[in-house]
C-alpha cells in the first residue's frame, strides 16, 4: 500500500487542493484510493461532500492516523492520501511516519519557503522520503520560471531539499473544479491545469516505484545477510 502524506505547517500552501486533485488520479479503474482528512477545519471533507460520485473514499482522522492506515491496508486499499493540518503536532508526525512519500507544497514566497524547514526536519528525523512541490506559482513565460519562482528554487537548493522540477501554476481552473466537487481531470481534462496535475501524479508514481524498489532491495540484502 502507498501512503502519501501532504504536509506543511504553513496555512494556505494548497495541501487540500493537491490532495483532492491527486486522489482522483490515484482512484481509477480497479485501484482503490482512500483520502484521509486529518485537519479539524475539514476542507477536504467539504470538497468530498460536494462530489456526486462519492469517491474516492474519505475518512476523518482528527484523533489518530495509525488505526486508519492499518484498516485501509486490511481492506485492500492501494493508495492513501493524508491531508494534514497547518502545524507540527503529534498527529502530523504520525502521518509523516506512516508515509511512503511526503509531499510538501510551498508557494514561492519567503514565508512559505521558510515554513517548510520544520516539515523537512521532521521527515529527515524519521528518514522519510519527501519532495517539495511549488504551488500557486506564476505562469512560466518562454519556458522560463518567473523571477520569484526561480528565487524559491535557489533557496530550496541551499536547503538541499528535493524539489519537483515542475510547478502547479496559479490557475482559476483549480478553484472552479473544487467548487464543483470535482478535480481538474473531471472538470476540464483538456486544460493546462489537468496537464500539470497529471504530470505531478506521474512524478509521484515514479518516485514511489523507486522508493519501493529500494526498500525491497534492502529487505533482500537483509535476508541474505541473515
- According to CATH, the homologous superfamily is P-loop containing nucleotide triphosphate hydrolases
Number of DSSP strands?
Answer: 7
**Main beta sheet, described?**
7 strands, parallel
Low-confidence stretches: 218-226
Number of separate structural domains: 1
Shape: globular
- What is the residue-mean pLDDT, rounded to a whole number? 89
**Biggest sheet strand line-up:** 3-2-4-1-5-6-7
Radius of gyration: 17 Å
Report how far the terminal alpha carbons are from each other: 26 Å
What is the annotated CATH architecture? 3-Layer(aba) Sandwich
Look up the CATH topology: Rossmann fold
Percentage of residues assigned to helices: 40-55%
CATH class: Alpha Beta
Give the topology string: H per helix, E per strand.
EHEHEHEHEHEHEHHH
* Proportion of residues in extended strands: 15-25%
Number of helices: 9
Structural class: alpha/beta
List the helices and strands and how they pair.
Elements: E1 2-6, H1 15-26, E2 33-37, H2 43-50, E3 57-60, H3 66-74, E4 79-83, H4 90-97, E5 101-106, H5 110-125, E6 130-137, H6 147-158, E7 168-169, H7 172-179, H8 184-187, H9 192-225
Parallel strand pairs: 1-4, 1-5, 2-3, 2-4, 5-6, 6-7
Helix pairs in contact: 1-2, 1-9
Amino acid at each position: 500500500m502507498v501512503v502519501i502524506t501532504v504536509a506543511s505547517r504553513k496555512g494556505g500552501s494548497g495541501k487540500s487542493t493537491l490532495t483532492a486533485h491527486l486522489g482522483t488520479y490515484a482512484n481509477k479503474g480497479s485501484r482503490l484510493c482512500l483520502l484521509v482528512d486529518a485537519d479539524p477545519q475539514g476542507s477536504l471533507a467539504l470538497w468530498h461532500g460536494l462530489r456526486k460520485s462519492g469517491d474516492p473514499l474519505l475518512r476523518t482522522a482528527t484523533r489518530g492516523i495509525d488505526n486508519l492506515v492499518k484498516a485501509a491496508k486490511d481492506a485492500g486499499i492501494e493508495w492513501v492520501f493524508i491531508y494534514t493540518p497547518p502545524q507540527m503536532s503529534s498527529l502530523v508526525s504520525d502521518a509523516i511516519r506512516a508515509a511512503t512519500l511526503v509531499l510538501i507544497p510551498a508557494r514561492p514566497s519567503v514565508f512559505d519557503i521558510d515554513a517548510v524547514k520544520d516539515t523537512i526536519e521532521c521527515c529527515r528525523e524519521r528518514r522519510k522520503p519527501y519532495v517539495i512541490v511549488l504551488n500557486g506559482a506564476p505562469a512560466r513565460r518562454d519556458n522560463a520560471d518567473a523571477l520569484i519562482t526561480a528565487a524559491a528554487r535557489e533557496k530550496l537548493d541551499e536547503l538541499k531539499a528535493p524539489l519537483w522540477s515542475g510547478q502547479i501554476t496559479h490557475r482559476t481552473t483549480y478553484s472552479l473544479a473544487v467548487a464543483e466537487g470535482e478535480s481538474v481531470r473531471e472538470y476540464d481534462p483538456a486544460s493546462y491545469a489537468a496537464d500539470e496535475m497529471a504530470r505531478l501524479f506521474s512524478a509521484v508514481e515514479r518516485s514511489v516505484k523507486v522508493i519501493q524498489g529500494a526498500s525491497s532491495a534492502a529487505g533482500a540484502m537483509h535476508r541474505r545477510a541473515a
